[in-house]
């Protein structure tokens, strides 16, 4: 896990989301679970109780519920910038699944990799960046228009 | 006649070798030479890389601090002071800025840094007056100690 061998990114927000309007970055949620398996019990309970409330609370997110014969129930979250995140929900309770969903809703779609600095500014310098002539007095005086020779 | 012993001699020796090898090679892809392709060379190189990465976590803190100190020293010498004088007088004036912040100020806010250098120089002059003077002069402004109750 070297810093040069693993990807890293700078801290940023998606198009300054939240400064003006806040747009939920979660585009689509697909809950893939099985109708009969024992590991999807929490998923089935969540779909009975909480999925409709979740869908009503987040009108900008499309919720797909797909029961299919699968060994591992999972939640596939797609974000507005195209990133896809899969989380497995085997043997999770309905409460844990709803917490997981709130976590996914609050995330922006940026990758979860090492963030180089915990801060970011668009205007790092107010008085002007230092250059070799900042603290030197000017060698010629102020430039004035030439006096006409009368 | 059906030959059955031939198929009994075929053994599957471990179906996951490719993925175990890729787990190591993926950390070696940005290396130079055959270390980024050949597993036996890559294992050694990846192990060294991880060891260097763990050791470097302490070194990074040291290196960053020396970088900040050299930047602050260069900036103070532009204003006619030296680094030890600046830091000592800033701490005596209870300015608790660390070296990272002062070096960032020196780069992005040169006028604020100039004011810090002037503050340190004033405190230095007060210190000289207190040490070399006769005690008849009034005590300085910046060297007043505030007692909080």
From TrEMBL, chain A:
Q: Name one Pfam family in it.
A: L51_S25_CI-B8
- GO BP terms, alphabetized: mitochondrial translation
Domain (Ribosomal protein/NADH dehydrogenase) ranges: 35-108
- Tell me which UniProt keywords the record has, alphabetically: Mitochondrion, Ribonucleoprotein, Ribosomal protein, Transit peptide
What start-end ranges are recorded for coiled-coil regions in this protein?
none
Task: Enumerate the subcellular locations listed in this protein's record, separating them with semicolons.
Answer: Mitochondrion
**Cross-referenced InterPro entries, in alphabetical order?**
Ribosomal_mL43, Ribosomal_mL43/mS25/NADH_DH, Thioredoxin-like_sf
- Region labeled Disordered — which residues? 130-150
A molecular function (GO) held by this record is:
structural constituent of ribosome
Its GO CC terms are:
mitochondrial inner membrane; mitochondrial large ribosomal subunit
List, alphabetically, the SMART domains matched.
L51_S25_CI-B8
Recorded family membership: Belongs to the mitochondrion-specific ribosomal protein mL43 family.
Report what the protein is called.
Answer: Large ribosomal subunit protein mL43
For this protein's source organism, the top of the classification is:
Eukaryota, Metazoa, Chordata, Craniata, Vertebrata
Automatic annotation (TrEMBL), chain B:
Gene Ontology annotations for the cellular component aspect, listed alphabetically? ribonucleoprotein complex; ribosome
Q: Name one Pfam family in it.
A: Ribosomal_L20
Name the InterPro entries for this protein. Answer: Ribosomal_bL20, Ribosomal_protein_bL20_C
Domain of life assignment: Eukaryota
Annotated keywords:
Ribonucleoprotein, Ribosomal protein
Q: Which GO terms fall under molecular function for this chain's record? A: rRNA binding; structural constituent of ribosome
Q: Name one GO biological process term.
A: translation
CDD domains, A to Z? Ribosomal_L20
Q: What is the similarity comment for this entry?
A: Belongs to the bacterial ribosomal protein bL20 family.
Q: Which HAMAP family does this chain map to? A: Ribosomal_bL20
Specify the protein name: Large ribosomal subunit protein bL20m
What's the gene? mrpl20
